[in-house]
Amino acid sequence: NFYYITILRDPVSRYLSEWRHVQRGATWKASLHVCDGRSPTTEELPSCYTGDDWSGCSLQEFMDCPYNLANNRQVRMLSDLSLVGCYNLSVMPEEQRNKVLLDSAKENLKRMAFFGLTEFQRKTQYLFEKTFNMNFISPFTQYNSTRASSVEIDEQTQQRIEALNFLDMELYDYAKDLFLQRYQYMRQKEHQEARRKRQEQRKILRAKQAHLREQGENSSSTDYLGNVERWR
């Protein structure tokens, strides 16, 4: 059996992390971006840079490229692009396209067997273990110090990144709410199971105690009757 799972991340942190990754020379050249059986044309998906890579690009340059696939990456990668004509932006108006993509991403996320959140490592581990009935040999670690967290940005830049990733921002709010609902459900289920086991154990213990008392009473009666016979 195959199960679809994913891990989502705070959109601003994820965006800054990708920028740092690209800045160090990373590219997505190996990604074919195949949709409906074909890769996008250069007109449908222009490159943000010339040359071998985009190493050394500033955050401003990264944000200024209108074709940057870092924008709303999580929504795009979770949605069914065939619903909007893949990478052909002329198929439908932008507002309609955005709504279709976001709705598709939410639906696909909801139907996944499991998804976690980078910002909630322990809860993510707990949900994974309960969902698939398996345990990791060591606890997940919450790293608050990352390459993204080391980037200091002002309020204006923060707002710009949020605007560029407005679909991811909405998806993340939805995902966090759904994630915490699933976590609470699993915790309640675990507590109910633990309570059921305690009740079952108490029931077994009471039955054993009653059996021992009955044995004790029978033994006392037998001893008494035996003494009566001897006294005669």
Descriptive account of the structure:
By secondary structure, the chain is mainly α. It has one domain (5-192). The protein has helices at residues 11-23, 59-64, 73-78, 94-111, 121-132, 155-164, 166-231; strands at residues 5-8, 114-117. It has a two-stranded parallel sheet. α4 runs parallel beside α7. The protein is elongated.
Write a concise synopsis of the structure shown.
InterPro entries: Heparan_SO4-6-sulfoTrfase, P-loop_NTPase, Sulfotransferase. The chain is mainly alpha-helical.
Percentage of residues in strands: under 5%
- What is the CA–CA distance across the termini? 79 Å
- Global Rg: 30 Å
Biggest sheet features: 2 strands, parallel
Number of helices: 7
How many domains make up the 3D coordinates? 1
- The tally of strands reads 2
Stretches where pLDDT is under 50 for at least 5 consecutive residues are none
Q: Main sheet: which strands, in order across?
A: 1-2
From the structure provided, what is the oligomeric state, counting identical versus distinct chains?
Answer: single chain
* General form: elongated
Pattern of helices and strands: EHHHHEHHH
Helix content: 55-70%
Mean pLDDT: 91
Structural class: mainly alpha
